[in-house]
């Protein structure tokens, strides 16, 4: 990948062709410039990353191993868990590596790659949350037609369309970034590369980039959000029509976990862009980005497992099955002759 042209700040349009150089790296400033706090930051982020990966892997194992969970709702939940693992992995491993090596450098190619995957997986998160809201809408408002409407073919098609939309959106945004020229002040006040931060660093005209970025944010982020609001407006109308209090509670409880995740995702995502627009380069913007990139994917497994009897039951059955298999393996290891006869 060709590195972009870099100009000394303030001289973007005044440089002679012979004085033009090309950048090869950015500096990720992260949270703290003091080395004494870096081990604390490293331990905190490593713990959150491991919890995120382990928690979402448990959801994937529970859904895949238990036939009771082979339903549309848990199919989408498994996809969301996979996307959350990938979403967090776009930034945190690189940040941990930089802290461990006491380096803040990220190459231009790696920065573009981070932006690319960040857009893909954040877009997938948004689409999957909207699909899950539609799934709850069909389950509560049209329960007798649920299995017909939410067929395996439609579920797979919805996920496929989400992937295609997110990848195309990412290709559009990254191709727009590749045309930018950058000034010499290439410090990113975050722990990872993000689209709006790279556009702010550009020395060339960014009007078209900002136009495309905000238009895509309204379309890709606002469209699914409107779908979520519509689905839940219909769900609330149906719940109000239920006569018994127990029936209302049961219907609402199936949506509580999803509502919590949607609120957390959109509130932290909105906080990222509001804080970066209001106070460029501040720690509040980086903190909001952490909430969006790390904390939300980490909390999702807890929200879905703690409030969901099916998931808790599947995890108990999975752990019991693993415990039963463990002693068998140990007993076979204690009898080498038996292992030889089996081979």
From TrEMBL:
Q: What is its main location?
A: membrane
InterPro entries, per database record: GPCR_Rhodpsn, GPCR_Rhodpsn_7TM, Olfact_rcpt
- What are the alphabetically sorted keywords of the record? Cell membrane, G-protein coupled receptor, Membrane, Olfaction, Receptor, Sensory transduction, Transducer, Transmembrane, Transmembrane helix
Domain of life, per UniProt, equals Eukaryota
Q: Where in the cell is it found?
A: Cell membrane; Membrane
PANTHER family found in the cross-reference section: OLFACTORY RECEPTOR (PTHR48001)
Record-stated family: Belongs to the G-protein coupled receptor 1 family.
Please report the name of this protein according to its UniProt entry.
Olfactory receptor
**Organism of provenance:** Panthera pardus (Leopard)
Q: Which gene encodes it?
A: LOC109261257
């Amino acid at each position: 990948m060709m590195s972009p042209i870099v100009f000394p700040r303030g001289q973007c349009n005044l440089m002679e062709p012979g004085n033009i150089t090309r950048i090869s790296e950015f500096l990720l400033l992260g949270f703290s410039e003091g080395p004494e706090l870096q081990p604390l930051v490293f331990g905190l982020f490593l713990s959150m990353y491991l919890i995120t990966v382990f928690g979402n892997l448990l959801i994937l194992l529970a859904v895949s191993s238990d036939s009771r969970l082979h339903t549309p709702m848990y199919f989408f939940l498994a996809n969301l868990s996979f996307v959350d693992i990938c979403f967090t992995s776009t930034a945190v491993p690189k940040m941990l590596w930089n802290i461990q090596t006491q380096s803040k450098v990220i190459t231009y190619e790696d920065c573009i790659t981070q932006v690319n995957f960040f857009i893909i997986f954040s877009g997938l998160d948004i689409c999957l949350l909207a699909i899950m809201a539609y799934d709850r809408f069909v389950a509560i408002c049209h329960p007798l037609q649920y299995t017909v409407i939410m067929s395996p073919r439609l579920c797979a098609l919805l996920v496929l369309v989400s992937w295609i939309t997110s990848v195309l959106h990412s290709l559009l945004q990254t191709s727009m970034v590749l045309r930018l020229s950058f000034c010499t002040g290439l410090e990113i006040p975050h722990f990872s590369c993000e689209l709006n931060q790279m556009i702010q660093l550009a020395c060339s005209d960014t009007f078209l980039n900002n136009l495309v970025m905000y238009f895509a944010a309204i379309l890709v982020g606002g469209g699914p959000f409107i779908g979520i609001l519509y689905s839940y407006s219909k769900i609330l109308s149906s719940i109000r029509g239920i006569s018994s209090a127990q029936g209302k509670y049961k219907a609402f409880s199936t949506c509580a976990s999803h509502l919590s995740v949607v609120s957390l995702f959109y509130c932290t995502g909105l906080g990222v862009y509001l804080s970066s627009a209001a106070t460029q380069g501040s720690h509040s913007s980086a903190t909001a980005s952490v909430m969006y990139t790390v904390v939300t994917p980490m909390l999702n497994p807890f929200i879905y497992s703690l409030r969901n009897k099916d998931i808790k039951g599947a995890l108990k059955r999975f752990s019991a099955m693993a415990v039963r298999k463990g002693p068998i393996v140990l007993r076979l290891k204690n009898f080498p002759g038996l292992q030889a006869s089996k081979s």
